[in-house]
Design brief:
It is a single chain. By secondary structure, this protein is an alpha/beta fold. The chain is globular. The protein has helices at residues 16-30, 34-47, 52-64, 68-81, 86-98, 102-115, 120-132, 136-149, 154-166, 170-183, 188-200, 204-217, 222-232, 242-252, 256-263, 268-279, 300-303, 317-324, 337-342, 364-373, 407-416; strands at 287-292, 307-314, 331-334, 348-353, 374-386, 395-397, 403-405, 419-432, 435-446. α9 packs antiparallel against α10 (170-183). The chain folds into two domains: 9-246, Tetratricopeptide repeat domain (Serine Threonine Protein Phosphatase 5, Tetratricopeptide repeat, Alpha Horseshoe); 256-446, Vaccinia Virus protein VP39 (Rossmann fold). The chain contains 21 helices and nine strands. Strands 1, 2, 3, 4, 5, 6, 7, 8 and 9 form a nine-stranded mixed β-sheet that branches. Helix content is 54%, strand content 15%. α18 (317-324) links the parallel β2 (307-314) and β3.
Length: 448
């Protein structure tokens, strides 16, 4: 969702020194220097204890650092000092949404919209929340209001398309995506959604044409390039390129958990946790563990009971920022997985990778490096999507951009890496387009 303006002009200090300090703190905050920004916000509050902007921004920073409870308290103090500023309520709603506190988020967004009833962005945000709650009529009305206030609001058109898709009316969704492209011909979100909808309808050639036209205008766009390969089989890479993965998941970070858990019945983290319970000793915070491709940290709390040290690695900074808020990772690394594993030999008792290796084709290299990163007797747990036996291939890219793997390929690469298979179970990882996504849940152990 669009974040509201980070400062309230109504709360501007009369002291130029405070203003300068606040602007410098904001610049540090935007650059990701959260500790430095917090130090300055705290100094401002020492001088002006109830400064609403400093309270609000310190709250946002604390949330980003994994201290969401403190963040909420600080923003609530800012609201108490300046209850008429919609931006405070909007960002409070954003935090509640990221924590899964939907009812509180709804209240905050409704308050923001009442305070700024002519703000199309806020109506668009409120619509997204109604949609997440499956209050489709209310979501439709909010998007309509946003488009009435701003007929060229591209995000509202795309969101209306998503609403139609959620209700099963993909043809209606396509109408809104095409309208968004008419309003902003280069809009990558509309292109991505249009292509996704076509392949979800089984119209793979139409999806490929969307990506072909996108590539003509943006030859280096990672999503257009990778998805064109996925839909046409032309120029398929050995694995999803780093820039594609990073861009896709940065874009997806904010809504990742709600989409997976509420719409796709996501099972992979719990499946991996169940396998840990079967093949590891009872949890006593005794292991050095890696969440490989940690995303927003859905596996982190499930791993924590076994973890003496828990680290996560991911290519997406947006995902890592979300993982930080879980409060269970000692270290989080932004890196490509195979390279990271290569650089951490014999370091981990457990490496767990839920729904990450589906972005690799041939798994030989990454499994070899995972095995090398394990301590003697260490355990590797992962999921991949299943390639049907009749495909006759070890692995194959799918129109959605991920790779599916044959069971025999898994056995081959695990054996070559010197890993003993503990478990290989056919599972349903999630739903997509109303259909189950079949996969393999795998556990293996380092023999050395």
């Amino acid at each position: 969702m669009d974040e509201a303006d980070m400062t309230s002009s109504a709360a501007a200090s009369t002291e130029m020194g405070i203003d300068d300090a606040l602007q410098y703190a904001i610049s540090l905050h935007r650059e990701g220097s959260l500790e430095g920004a917090c130090t300055l916000y705290e100094r401002i509050l020492e001088a002006v204890p109830a400064h609403p902007d400093a309270l609000h921004l310190l709250g946002m920073a604390r949330h980003q650092m994994g201290r969401s409870d403190e963040g909420v308290r600080l923003i609530e103090q800012a609201v108490a000092r300046e209850p008429g500023f919609a931006g405070f309520f909007n960002n409070l709603g954003n935090i509640y949404m990221s924590r899964g506190e939907v009812a509180k988020a709804l209240g905050a967004y409704q308050q923001a919209t009442e305070l700024a009833s002519d703000n199309a962005d806020l109506h668009n945000n409120l619509g997204a929340l109604y949609k997440a709650q499956r209050q489709f009529d209310e979501a439709h009305a909010s998007y309509e209001r946003a488009m009435q206030l701003d007929p060229r609001h591209v995000s509202a058109h795309n969101n209306m398309g998503l609403l139609y898709a959620e209700k099963g009316d993909r043809a209606g969704a396509i109408t809104y995506y095409i309208k968004a492209l008419e309003l902003l011909p280069g809009d990558s979100s509309a292109r991505r959604l249009l292509g996704t909808t076509y392949y979800a309808m089984g119209r793979i050639a139409d999806a490929g044409e969307v990506y072909r036209q996108w590539l003509e205008q943006e030859p280096d766009h990672p999503t257009a390039r990778h998805m064109y390969a996925a839909c046409t089989g032309d120029g398929v890479p050995d694995r999803a390129p780093d820039d594609y993965v990073e861009q896709a998941f940065d874009h997806f970070a904010e809504s990742f958990e709600s989409v997976l858990n509420e719409r796709l019945n996501y099972q992979a983290p719990q499946l991996c946790a169940d396998l840990m319970a079967r093949h590891l000793p009872p949890p006593q915070q005794q292991f050095v563990m890696l969440d490989a491709g940690c995303g927003t940290g859905l596996c982190g709390p499930l791993m924590a009971p076994w973890a003496k040290v828990l680290a996560g690695v991911d290519l997406s900074k947006g995902m890592l920022d979300r993982a930080q808020t879980k409060g269970v990772y000692r270290d989080l690394y932004k890196a490509e997985l195979t390279e990271f594993l290569t650089l951490s030999p014999r370091q981990w008792d457990v490496v767990l990778s839920a729904d990450t290796l589906c972005y690799f084709g041939d798994l030989a290299k990454v499994i070899q490096e995972a095995a090398g990163s394990l301590k003697p007797g260490g355990t590797l747990i992962f999921t991949v999507e299943a390639l049907p036996d009749e495909a006759g291939l070890p692995h194959q890219i799918q129109p959605h951009g991920r790779y599916a793997h044959h069971r025999l390929h898994l056995i081959e690469v695990l054996s070559a890496a010197g890993l003993n298979v503990l478990d290989m179970e056919a599972v349903v990882l999630r739903e997509e387009g109303g259909k189950p996504v079949n996969g393999w849940l795998v556990g293996a152990r380092q023999l050395g």
